[in-house]
Structure formats: C-alpha cells, structure tokens
Amino acid sequence: MPLAHHARGAVAGAALLAVGWLVPTPVATARPVPTSEQQATNCVQPGPVLRYVVLFPRGTAPETAEAEITAKCGTTTVYYPQVAVAVATSPDPAFGERFGPARAFSAQGTVLARRERTRRQDETAPRGDSRSRGGGQSAADRTAEQWDMAMIRADRARRVNPGSRDVVVGVLDSGIDATHPDLARAVDPSLSVGCLTGRPNPAPKAWAPTTSVHGTHVAGTIAAADDGRGITGVAPGVRLASVKVVDDQGYIFPEYAVCGLLWAAESGMRVVNNSYYVDPWMLTCRNRDGERVVHEAVRRAVEYANERGVLVVAATGNAGVDLSRPGRGGSVDEDGHRVDSSCDVLPARVRGVVAVSSVGAKRLKAGYSSYGLGVVQVTAPGGDYRQEPGPGREGCVLSTVPGGYDYSCGTSMATPHVSGVAALLASTHPSATAPQLARLLNAQARSVACPADYDLNGDGAQDAVCHGATSYNGFYGHGMVDALAAVTNGRD
C-alpha cells in the first residue's frame, strides 16, 4: 500500500506491440470447455472469483502454463514468460491447493478472509481524507516553500541539467493527474498503463487517479515543470509514465507490482519509483506458505527489470522499524503471525533495489522512517512535523495533487527525490546499466553520520539505534542524495 496518506482488446494489443512488449496470453472472454483432466478435478464455482499469482519453472512455455491453469480450474489473465509468473482467476476455492502453497497464492483472498474489512492506512501516515487542502491550482510560484529541493540542491542542479526527455521514470503508484499544469508536459500517455488486473491496460481511465492523490504528489516531486509557477521537481526535463498499481481500497497486491515492473522493463524506462509496500502484509516472509510465492514473484520481476536496465527505487516504509532485525521484540504481522529474519518489506528489501529512508528539515531521520544497516542505500527529505522548518509548512513536503498542491510526509515523499536524482544520473550517463546507476547514486550521496542523540520526544530514551560508520550506516545508508553532484560529477 502507499506509504503516505492517500494512494483491451485491439487497442491494448497495438500499444503493447508498439513498445516491444512480449504480448501476454490474452484474457479469456469465457470459461474454457473443460478437458477430461479438468473434469477429473471436479471443478466447482461457488465463488467468489479470486485472483492468484502462480509460479512456474523458468522456461515454461505460455501454452503449457495456460493448460495447467485450465486443468486446475482456473482462467489465465496473463502469463509473463520472461519471469514464468502468471496471474489467474478462479471461483473454485481449491484452485490454490491444486498448485500447492509454494506455487500459487491469492492476496485478494487473504484480505477478504480477514475480520477487519475497513480500508487500511499506513502506520504513521496522516489520517483523514486524501483530498487537496492546498487551495486549488494557482499561478503563484511556490518554489520558495520547497525546503526539500534546497536540501538536495535540486534548485541549483536544474540550472545545469534539468534532465533528458530520453529518460522515462515510471511512477508505480495510484495514478498521475496528467491534466495538472505542472505535469501535463511530463506525463507520456503512450507509456502509461493500469495494472489492477495484473495485466497492463493502456486506457487512460485505467492509469488516471481515482480515490488517491498519492501518485500525483510523488510525480510532482520527480518532474514538476520549471515554469515559474507552482512547484518544480528534481528533474523537470524527464518524462513520466503513470503505472497504476494502487487500487481504490489502497492495496498493492503482488500481481499489480509484477505487472508494473514488467511493463517498465519492456517499455524502456530507466527508473521506477515505488513508494509503497506489497500487500497483504507489511513484511513478507520467505519461509511461510503463500508468502514465499509473493516474495519470489516480486524478486523475479525486480531481477528482470534490473537486467533490462531499469533502476528500481523503493521506500523502506513508515513503521519506524529496524529492517535489518525485523523480528526483534516478538513482532507479529497483520494476521497475527510472528515476524522473523526471513521477513522483508517488498520491494525495498529485494536485491538490486535502492531502498530509501526519510529525513526531516533538520537532516535527522524522521521518526516514522524504517531503517537498517545493510538495507538503506540512501536518504532524502520526506518531512517530519517534529522538524518543522517554518510556520504553516507542517514540516512536510509540498507537491502536486489533483486540483492544486498539498503537503505530505513519509518515506513515500523521500523516495521520489531519489528517483529524480537517479533520472539526472541516467540523463548524464545514458549508457549506464541499472547496477552502474545504483553505484553512481551511492557515490554522489553526501555522508550523514549517525546522530549522537536520537531522543525525539525528550523522554531521555533513544527512539532508535543507528549502527555503522559515517560513510555508511543504518539511518542514512551512503548519505543524502545530491542532485547538483549528479549533474556535475561531484563538482560544485
């Protein structure tokens, strides 16, 4: 789910082919006629129809995967042969059992089975509705309120290099308002899709925001126009793709994330911003039935994206936990299961992902920000009301929302600063691979030492412990990203 306050047919096929996409197995329009093998399984249809992620051995052909899904009483929505992951639906409650807990899982079913049916919100996100409180669109220049851009020297960097139009940043989120004047030029509709079935849908309604301002806020931080009005993003010269992976209940199911990452990989994007964690748990455990399916599917998708040159940037989350020791203190997840060292926040903890922590205006780790030595790669401003920089600013980050501008705090807000700097690096190093971009991102960061005192509420107790050296530690990783260094190779 988003980490701050709230995130067919012939036309689709033509759009997919236009960007070199390996065309997925078509969505079935009717339930296939049962084969003798299928009839032997005694398929039943009591409902509800649930969506599943299904793993196959690497190299499985599309027709083989679809045949097995059909034989086990399901219908294939899409099969991604690049990673041997399928998305399927079935009204038969035994569908997952036929594949086994190491191969098939329904996050949707897990959510439906929980007693708590209300819409979830992130642990430390601001409460209440997610509509703009910014007073509507205005021609006024509000860049003076962007303390966050000054902190990473983005205001100076864009005078040197605002980023290249050849660089596309995928915003995997709740959708981007492409009509916003600060974003209209940046959003590329031809590369934007909705992923809420697990299969990419290029229809504009599929990738536009509905109930959440989250994606639009993230997008503005990355690439809002440098036009003398409103705000300005870190890399106003690059393009954005709206890849909608947050549904109207605020969930990011694994099939949404896999779809988004695969779309980014096949569409030639250089950077993808992931200001969320994959549901249905904040921490997904590799050693637990069902959860290992989610973990493996997301891992394969990230790995493939990296191989295709996509740098994956993700938030560590707003739970304020040490992700290097997630099970310490007997923690339990949303379903009451004990969390241990096999449990990771996804996608931030997947190998090859740049994990981002958040700081407030005083350059101190925000109290809500999760952290961990060996987890956090870099840090960026995400805001913290306890480090408020001035009256009326709420200590948070100002950015675009549908209808205007608003403030928000969270690792969701820190992450797009990093994605913007990564886009600047991709603009100045057009041939860099994803691992090379990650190394460049780490190298340009300015080191931030562990604080001598991390008592945020003044009660005499440390609120978290920072492990590591000045050059690399659990609060700040390699340090604060620096947009000016990214476009000048470290020279002021």
TrEMBL record:
InterPro entries documented for this protein: Peptidase_S8/S53_dom (IPR000209), Peptidase_S8/S53_dom_sf (IPR036852), Peptidase_S8_Asp-AS (IPR023827), Peptidase_S8_His-AS (IPR022398), Peptidase_S8_Ser-AS (IPR023828), Peptidase_S8_subtilisin-like (IPR050131), Peptidase_S8_subtilisin-rel (IPR015500)
Domain of life the protein comes from: Bacteria
UniProt KW keywords: Hydrolase, Protease, Serine protease
Compositional bias (Basic and acidic residues): 113-132
Domain Peptidase S8/S53, residue spans: 165-454
Residues annotated as catalytic: D173 (charge relay system), H214 (charge relay system), S412 (charge relay system)
Matching Pfam families: Peptidase_S8
A biological process term (GO) from this entry: proteolysis
GO molecular function, one term: serine-type endopeptidase activity
Protein name: Subtilase family protein
